[in-house]
Amino acid sequence: MKIVSLFSGAGGMDLGFEQAGFEIIQANEYDKHIWKTYRKNFSNTYLEKESIVKIKNFPEADGLIGGPPCQSWSVAGSKRGINDSRGQLFFDFIRALKQIKPKFFVAENVQGILSKRNEPALKQIIKMFEEAGYIVSYKLLNAKDYNIAQDRKRVFFVGFRKKNFVFPEPLKKTIVLKDIIYDLRDNVVEPIDNTYHNENCLVSNHEYFKGGFSSIFLSRNRVRAWDEVSFTIQATARHIPLHPQAPKMILLGKDKRGFVPEKEKLYRRLSIRECARIQSFPDQFEFLYDNLIHGYKMVGNAVPPELARVIAEEIKKQA
What is the mean pLDDT for each group of 10 consecutive residues in the chain (319 residues)? Predict the structure, then answer.
């Protein structure tokens, strides 16, 4: 089945659907820092680089997938929801849906969209999906329940024209950091001037940002152990979790944590490749960037491909 992808980013959701046997015929991404990465990994997909606001015609397809910008719904964001210009890009997703009239759609967003303050907007969004001709199912999923070594809660909306979508059940076994990144522990490289790409990576993208730690970052523990799942992989380099080689951070006072004395050298951020593995990207998926900030952003904003694949497989069964 053919898929149109909107707000594609580096292609996490696209990769999952491709792994499930779908064909991504067209993608849309407006961020110029992502274009090289998308083209590198999806050479057979047409990449539309215009803002979705300017796109007038979309190709025929069996499915429409995407993650409209979520910052305006986030607890840490502006909290303006549908009244924010980024939140209103949801309307363009609806516009594309009405024009393409696919058999199904999948839209992903942050859990903040389910908060009490966003209840009116959520009802409005569901109403728009229904008016476009779809029966809407939505659910908050945690990536760790689907073979991904990460606590990552996101809301997925799935719509069929004539039936409800039944979400996949959580798996009984959870994989942990040691299962995913242990083999990378000794071959990480430092960036150039703390933040620029180092061409001497033995494993692609296996380099880590070396900027300082903010008081907000140091307000709580940022280390998960080898036998645990990772914290959510963020899109901001300075907020990336710390590597499990370090001991848990110690409490120094109210909202203040620190590194264990004489162990300070063990505290480094996870590399971009480690974050990508935690997000379930395969090693052959290469992220292209000059500044590591853009690499972390691409990885952190992505839908974990494995979670997208699981949803795509269920869509195939139920369509």
Answer: 97 98 97 98 97 94 88 48 62 94 96 87 89 97 98 97 96 95 97 95 96 95 98 97 98 96 97 98 98 98 98 96
Q: Whose CA is closest to 187, among 283, 301, 304?
A: 283
| C-beta of residue 50 within 8 angstroms of C-beta of residue 42 | no
Distance between CA atoms of residues 280 and 199, nearest Å: 23
Strands 104-110 and 153-160, bridge-based pairing: antiparallel
Q: How far is Cα 53 from Cα 32, in angstroms, rounded to an integer?
A: 16
Distances (CA, A) of 168 to 158, 159, 206, 235: 12, 15, 32, 27
Name the helix (H) or strand (E) containing 276. helix 272-278
- 3-class secondary-structure state, position 53: helix
Q: Could you tell me which residues are beta bridge partners of residue 138?
A: 157
275 is catalytic: no
Question: Given 3.40.50.150, 3.40.50.720, 3.40.50.1000, 3.30.40.10, which CATH number is that of 2-170+304-318?
Answer: 3.40.50.150
DSSP state of 25: E
The kind and range of the H/E element at 18 are helix 12-19
Per-residue model confidence (pLDDT) at position 223: 98
Set 34, 64, 70, 270: catalytic member: 70
Domain-wise residue ranges, the chain: 2-170+304-318
User: Could you give the CA distance from residue 210 to residue 122 in angstroms, rounded to a whole number?
Assistant: 39
H runs (alpha helix) in 4-79: 12-19, 35-41
**Dihedral angle of Cα 311, 223, 244, 141, to the nearest 10 degrees:** -10
